[in-house]
User: Fold this.
Amino acid sequence: MIKKCLFPVAGYGTRFLPATKSQPKEMLPIVNKPLVQYGVEEALKAGLSDIGFVTGRGKRAIADHFDINYELEHQIEGTGKEVYLESIREVIDKCTFTYTRQSEMKGLGHAILTGKTMIGDEPFGVILADDLCFDDDEGVMGQMVNLYKQFRCSIVAIEEVPMEETYKYGIVEGINIKDGLFRVTNMVEKPKPEDAPSNLAVIGRYILTPDIFDILEKTPPGANGEIQITDALMEQAKNGCVMAFKFRGKRFDCGSVDGYIDATNYSYENYYKK
Assistant:
């Protein structure tokens, strides 16, 4: 039912300068694998094999990563080092990749709108590689795809955050349908703690229905002067249904240095060493 997944990867990664001066932040490694590969593997695990990247200037390394490197593969062919390429070879074999460029940084909503030509008139997933999620069963996107089969509407992944951190996130309020599942009645982008309707924060996993593009085209700039996906989803919620889902698994904010280090340590201890 859902085959396409959009990856907005045009951001500058300023919090990791100077490392990201000439290298995409999405290519920063968690142990021996770049952030963006974890996201693509999660999408593939959920059955989303048509991968679309909304890129920007200086992001060529992402396209190179999801391509064959004939010189490298020739050099290590027949050696024990070939095993290190197994995971990326599987992704390249099973996925198709499409790229378009976001010429201006106008917010996540604008980045998703830029990907319209790659998606067409289909429901699709969105993964933000900054949010690294570990779940050994279905993966977070897989959990959301199963929910979509039941509700056929846009779905956002949420988790509880400390009230003093609501200013970092889109915050949702909703009617509790069942344990961990809410029908959204209100969404606010980066509210101050005293203005936040709850502590349920949207993280970088979405399933969106294609009418979101028409809404985004009419959505005025919101917080920080950017086109916010939160505002578009609130319009969608007024006229239909948007669900918010407390996912199973562990999530790290790899857009921050502390989260990136924590994710590296967690991955090393729980996956790499094994």
Remarks:
- The chain has a mean pLDDT of 92.
- Residues 257-272 form the longest helix (16 residues).
- The domain at 4-272 is CATH 3.90.550.10 (Spore Coat Polysaccharide Biosynthesis Protein SpsA; Chain A).
